[in-house]
Each structure stands twice: as structure tokens, then as C-alpha cells.
């Protein structure tokens, strides 16, 4: 505790929090890792220099630092450690938009939605759109290389990060990349930090690339009485055109959303697809007509297209609402497995089998156009046996995805909860490569130990 | 030479070349590095296993290995070293296209143009298009994170690499990433290797993401009597829309091209812009009309638009022909500096001043929409004093770009020729980060020593 007194004295008043109730509220992120510890303190820096002081202090005392954005992570990447520090970037909230270079310089604590809003004032668009965009921070998005619904056409966070300011494990602050659209000077270190889950450094500033405002396009919604028919339709579409969104909900999700929103969704459907095109003018309409025709060819039970953006948005909102709607049925273990597109149907049917075998409800929603699915495993936390079966299913789904040539995480990161399954995907040599990079950048292992890999 | 006999014995007949004429032909890439050495041997593996054997052998004997694609690099990234091995991937030429996942698995020796052609048979498109696309290999493109003309809308090589097979310095072969559109498992190592210039491993297989065939759109060509007016027009356009190409040629380039192609280009113009939109239908035409209007507003002396793709392609071909056309005037030192877009005019006028001060001809062509320029410094190799002035100008242009917040290389890589200027851009801490990663992956420093950083 002498060490901590030193940190409190070094930093501005109120920046280091030690109140037990506050510490308790920073123990877990949304993954609610049951193994979470209680941190020594929560530090909420305002400037890069503050972060440097925290890391110099942590390095000197060999104290673990868990960087944290808004705590919306779903893999336990911000789980607190006993005796460690939680470094929350929530107070670092500056943004400056440069409409001329179509870039913005953003501090990590700003919400994704706030970035979108700030740049929209200049007629610009920051594409990455995790479902949690209204509550998650850019810093967390960079740490996990967050995705979302638009990725099928517009890519993920790393595709929009041109530069970073990062504080390294020893407190050194470095600038990587910058507002240059192409830069091949030196190793691509900016890219190395995006998705590194706070294990290599603390990001204190992000330079993002922006696009002109997205055209609000046309949308088609379709229901199927067979999951595999819906998945086949997805593969037919992505082989031919570039939809701006291509989302999947299974029967459990459809019913959970209908329970809450009462939109008139077909409760008897096995699957629903929501697809959009944001191409301008006739091209967007053509794309939607093409997708509607593909759905019909694949035996869709209902196909509804609209070029009214608000009407289209209602279906997107239904898809976005699927996680909270399913969550109303119990506690969730939230998966993020991805597969090469042709294996999508096999993944979904494999998950159905796991649900039956383990006698738990699992709802599959998916960024189908990316092959990235979110099986939501529902359990009653008061039923220990069911919780254990849910945990078994959680692991089995990751094993299933890896067996299909897939990944244990498409966009949420490994965090702490998925770590036991990572070696099964990467193999021992690639795990060793991860460790070598980590050792080179954080030799004492103070940055988010136990997370990421 | 005993060591070499061992390698020759281990590998299939004819894979290791030691004929002096052949060795001489592999000493340099297109950068014609005057400091090039003579290698002990040239090895042309056919399989990943061959590459593993070469690297195991090189590691055991601490012999430097210079990986080489088709030798079209412009920074000396494949300069041979005395007593080292040149590992040419030119014989590794397999490709398999998967139209369902819209991906292809490509060996490094295939030409960029061959990849484009192979995937076009499936109605698909591999976007990155360095000007050398007909003679450069995918392996070299991955090593340098190559760009091209389409990058202003479609990004660079790293944006299309989903997975790699890489042989590490000790001969271990690893698979990174794969045919998954989103993958957040472990550190983003795939991204680390793209642009690492053969310093961290030898890429033996690349999984690339493909797009549906590009729509052949509309093009607008415009001349200006002022470079800064042309640059201002560029910035106005990129702030508002996403052209699929936005290229710049200065007066020297216009005249050099006109000397050769006799297209009727305006020899009195100070600058020419060639811009395209590949958006379908009315949207593409609108974009081109918008760009034409912006050119007019910025005082263009001539504006010509066409929605005939062949007519448009003739102007693109003129732009592509600029380097060979200028090369006809003497030997070239070819720059690749980039700046944030608003600094483009200042960069070009600064280059003009350097040309005047050093009394050499410098022609500027640019991927203007990216802020990535290629000043071509022309000199007579028989005139030692002029060559020295050209070398001075070469360094001064990089210093100028860095001073404007830019980069010494946008898409060609640092190689050996630009290395003295890298620390000026990155600073000592980032240089140290580069070296730490290198030491972690290639502790004996056998992979392309002296290149990259």
C-alpha cells in the first residue's frame, strides 16, 4: 500500500480511486468473469502523461495494469486482478475532426456513437458499428479490433486506424502511423496494436480514417423454414455482390424479439435474414432485387423489400435488439465464433446439436455475410447444473468452429474467458510467436496479464 | 563453401544456382543499389518445405537470406549481400480460387497480373494494382504492402490479406489467419508480416480476399496552369466523395508521355489530373460530373469527361506510362514520399525548389487522392557531379516530406536505400520498437539484414 500512496501523491487529486464500492464496480466487464479479482485501485487518467506516470509506477513496482474502456467487453478482457490496477480511459474524451483529410484524432474514452455523431456534423462517417456502439468506447474497439454489422462491406476497426499514440509497458509514449492514407515506413506496428487487447500498450489517441456519409439504402427481409436454406442464400449473395449488411437470426431470436417488440415477425420461421445495400440510386435497388430473388430461389417463406430507409432501419433495429431480447430469458454466455462462409450452415446445425445434447437454449444470431456468429447460450444462474452444461456448450461451440476451419472469436477478442481454447485454434508455434512479441514489448508482463493469448 | 555443398545436397537438383552470370543477375532489384554484393547462391524453392530447409540451413550456418519476389522493388529491399543467399520465390506459382468464399490461396511467385487474371475467370477482382502489376509478384506485394492507383478507394495489400503461411528464421512454418473475414484470435500477426520486407519471415502462401468484378466507370481528365490549383481540387474532391482513382502528373511527366504516345496532351499545362468513379449507373456519372465541376471551379484550363471505359482507360494508360516515359530521359531515382492531403501542394512546390537548387530535373507523378507522390529524379549516370546532386535531392525530398508530417515511403518500402532517413520519420523510440520485434522473431538477424528498418 506504500506503493499506492506514491501513485496517489504523483497524480492529480481524485484520479486514483480506492473506495471499495467503486473498486467493486470495476471488477468485471460485461463478460462477468467469475474469476475477477479486486483491484488495488482504479486510475482514470486524463492525459497521455498521466498514463505514462501510471505505467512507470507499475513497472517500478511490478504491479499488473488492466486497461479498460467502457467495460462493455464480452470476453473478460478487462477483468480486474487482485492487487492490480484498473486503468480506465473513460475520462479521455477529446476529439478533433479534420474534414479536409477526412480523419479524426480521438481519445480512447469517447463512445463509438459519439465519434459517429461528431464526424456526422461534417458529413462524414466512421463505419465500424458493434451492436454496443452506443455504450462502447473507441479505446475498447481498438483493443478488440471490434466489428459490427457494416463489416461485410466496410471492414473492421483496424481498417480505419491510421495512427495511434501508445504508452508502452515502461511508460514510454510512442506515435505510430498518422494521418497518411498510405505509409510503408518500418514494421506495420499500428496494425500490431489494433486487436492486442491491452497486452502490448495503452492506447491514448487514435487517428481514424473517415468516409463520406453513408447513403441510406434499400433493405430486404426474408424468413425461411430451414436454417441451411438461409445460409445457402447468404453464400450465393456474397459470392456475387457486396451488400452493406447481411444479418441472420434464428427462431429463438425471432421469437425473443417478437415477444418484446411485437413487430409481426413470423414466429414459425426457422431463420430470418436482413440484408441491405447502400449503393446509390438504381444500383442499390438492383442489389436488393437480386437478394430478394436469391431468397425466393432458396425457398424463402416470406420476402419483403423496402427502399424506405426508416422502414429498413426498423428491421435492423430488430436485429440489434436480439441480444437484449434473448438476455431477458436468462443469463447469457455470449459466443463470437466465425467460420469460412461455406461452413456457416454446418456451424449453425452443430450448435443446434450441442444445445440439444446439453439441454440448454442456444440462440444463434450472426453477421452472416462475414461468417461471424454469436450463439447466445441461455442459462438460469440459480441452476448450478444448468450453468455447468452451459459452460460445456460454450467450449464445445468453440471446438466446433475450430474444427470447421474457423475462429473462436471474430470481433470480441479472446480476453480471459476464451483463452483455454486459443491454442486449439492457433497451434503451439503461433502461440509461441504471440508470447515472443509480448516478451519483447512487455518483458515483465505487467500489461493485462492473462488476457488475449 | 562446405556449407553450401550441404545445401545443394539437401535440395532437389537445380534448385540451388551458383553460376556467376546467374548470381550477377540476382544482385540487384530495380533500385539498382550500387552497394549490392554478390550472393553465395540463388535458391529457387518450389515448396514451403524447401524454404524451411533453406532457413534451417541458413540458421545453422548464420548465413544471411535475402528473400526476393520478381525483383521489381524500388527501394533495394532485395539487394543481395556478399556471402548471403538470395531466396527467390519465382518458382512458387500455384493459385486456387474459391469463388464461394471470394478468396484465393496464392503462392508468392505469381505475378499480381496473373492473380487478377485467374480470379477474373470467376467474375472476381483482386484490387491492389501497383503500376508494375504486370511484372511484380504477390510475394513482393505482401513484403512491401504494395499500393497502386485503386488504393484511394480500395486500400492497399494488407487490406486484402486474410492469411499467410510464413517460414520463420529458424525454419518453422506457421499459418496465420485464414479464409475468415473477421478473426480476433491472438495478436494480429498476419498484419505484422504484411509490409515487413522479408525481415521477419518468408511468406510461402497468401490467402487473399477478393471483390466482385469492378464496374468499369467514368473518367474525367483535366489540365491546370497551376500545380497548387490542381492539388486544391484534389482535396476538395476527397473530402466529399470516393473516387476510384485520382492521379496527378506534372508538366515534365505530361511532356514525357506526350513525347512517346502523341495523344494530344496539353504540353503547356503545369499539371494534369486523371480521376475515375466506378460507382454503378447514375452515381458514377454524378461523381464524375462533380469532379469536373470542382476542376472547373479551381481554374482548370481543360476538362474532358467520358463514360466510355476504353476512352477513360487511355488516360489511365498515359498515367501508368509516365515512369517509363520519364525514364527515357536518363537514369532515375524514384521517390515514394507521402503527406497528409492538405500538404500535397506544399510538397510538390518544395520538390520544385529542390530541383532548382540542385539543378536536376524532377518530375512529380502522384496517387494524389492518397497524398502519395513519386518524384522521379532524372540524372545522367555518366555525369558524376549530377548523380551526386540527384542523391542530395533524393534525401532532401524525404526530409521535406517528414517535415510536412509525411512518410518517406507510401508503398515501396524502406528497403536499403531509404534506411538512413527512417529514424528521422519514426524517432528513436519507434526505431527501438522495430528492433525489439525483429530480435524476438529473428534473434540471429539472418533475414534480410540491413533492409526495412
From TrEMBL, chains A, B:
GO MF annotation: an example: FAD binding
InterPro entries on file: FAD-bd_oxidored_4_C (IPR004113), FAD-bd_PCMH (IPR016166), FAD-bd_PCMH-like_sf (IPR036318), FAD-bd_PCMH_sub2 (IPR016169), FAD-linked_Oxase-like_C (IPR016164), FAD-linked_OxidoTrans_Type4 (IPR051914), Oxid_FAD_bind_N (IPR006094), Vanillyl_alc_oxidase_C-sub2 (IPR016171)
Keyword Flavoprotein in record: yes
FAD-binding PCMH-type domain boundaries: 35-213
Cofactor section: FAD
Keyword match Repeat: no
Short name of one Pfam family: FAD_binding_4
Keywords: FAD, Flavoprotein, Oxidoreductase
Family named by the database record: Belongs to the FAD-binding oxidoreductase/transferase type 4 family.
Name this polypeptide is given: FAD-linked oxidase
Annotated organism of origin: Mycolicibacterium duvalii
Amino acid at each position: 500500500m506504500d506503493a499506492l500512496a506514491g501513485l496517489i501523491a504523483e497524480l492529480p487529486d481524485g484520479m486514483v480511486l480506492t473506495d471499495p464500492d467503486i473498486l467493486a464496480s470495476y471488477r468485471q466487464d460485461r463478460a462477468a468473469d467469475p474469476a475477477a479479482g479486486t483491484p488495488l485501485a482504479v486510475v482514470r487518467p486524463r492525459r497521455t502523461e498521466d498514463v505514462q506516470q501510471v505505467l512507470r509506477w507499475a513497472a517500478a513496482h511490478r504491479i499488473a495494469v488492466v486497461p479498460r474502456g467502457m467495460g462493455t467487453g464480452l470476453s473478460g478482457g478487462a477483468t480486474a486482478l487482485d492487487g492490480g490496477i484498473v486503468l480506465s480511459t473513460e475520462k479521455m474524451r477529446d476529439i478533433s475532426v479534420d474534414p479536409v483529410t477526412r480523419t479524426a484524432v480521438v481519445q480512447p474514452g469517447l463512445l463509438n456513437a459519439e465519434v459517429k455523431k461528431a464526424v456526422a456534423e461534417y458529413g462524414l462517417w466512421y463505419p465500424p458499428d458493434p451492436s454496443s456502439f452506443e455504450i462502447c468506447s473507441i479505446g475498447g474497439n481498438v483493443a478488440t479490433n471490434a466489428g459490427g454489422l457494416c463489416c461485410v462491406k466496410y471492414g473492421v476497426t483496424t481498417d480505419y486506424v491510421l495512427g495511434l499514440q501508445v504508452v508502452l509497458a515502461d511508460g514510454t509514449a510512442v506515435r505510430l502511423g498518422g494521418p497518411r492514407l498510405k505509409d510503408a515506413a518500418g514494421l506495420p506496428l499500428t496494425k500490431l496494436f489494433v486487436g492486442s487487447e491491452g497486452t502490448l500498450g495503452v492506447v491514448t489517441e487514435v487517428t481514424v480514417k473517415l468516409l463520406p456519409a453513408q447513403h441510406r439504402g434499400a433493405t430486404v427481409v426474408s424468413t425461411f423454414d430451414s436454417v441451411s436454406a438461409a445460409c445457402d442464400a447468404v453464400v450465393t449473395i456474397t459470392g456475387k455482390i457486396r451488400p452493406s449488411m447481411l444479418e441472420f437470426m434464428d427462431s429463438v431470436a425471432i421469437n425473443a424479439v417478437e415477444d418484446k417488440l411485437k413487430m409481426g415477425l413470423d414466429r414459425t420461421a426457422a431463420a430470418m435474414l436482413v440484408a441491405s445495400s447502400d449503393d446509390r440510386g438504381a444500383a442499390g435497388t438492383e442489389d436488393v432485387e437480386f437478394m430478394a430473388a436469391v431468397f425466393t430461389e432458396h425457398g424463402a417463406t416470406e420476402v419483403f423489400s423496402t427502399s424506405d430507409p426508416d422502414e429498413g432501419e426498423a428491421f435492423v433495429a430488430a436485429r440489434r435488439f436480439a441480444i437484449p431480447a434473448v438476455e431477458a430469458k436468462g443469463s447469457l454466455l455470449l459466443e463470437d465464433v466465425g467460420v469460412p462462409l461455406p461452413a456457416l450452415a454446418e456451424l449453425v446445425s452443430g450448435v443446434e446439436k450441442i444445445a440439444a445434447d446439453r439441454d440448454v437454449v442456444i440462440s444463434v444470431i450472426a453477421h452472416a455475410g462475414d461468417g461471424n456468429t454469436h450463439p447466445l447460450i441461455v442459462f438460469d444462474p440459480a441452476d448450478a447444473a444448468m450453468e455447468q452444461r452451459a459452460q460445456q456448450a460454450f467450449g464445445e461451440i468453440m471446438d466446433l468452429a475450430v474444427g470447421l476451419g474457423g475462429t473462436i472469436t471474430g470481433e470480441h477478442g479472446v480476453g480471459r474467458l476464451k483463452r483455454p481454447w486459443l491454442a486449439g485454434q492457433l497451434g503451439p508455434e503461433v502461440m509461441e510467436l504471440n508470447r515472443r512479441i509480448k516478451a519483447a514489448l512487455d518483458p515483465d508482463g505487467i500489461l493485462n496479464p492473462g488476457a488475449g493469448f
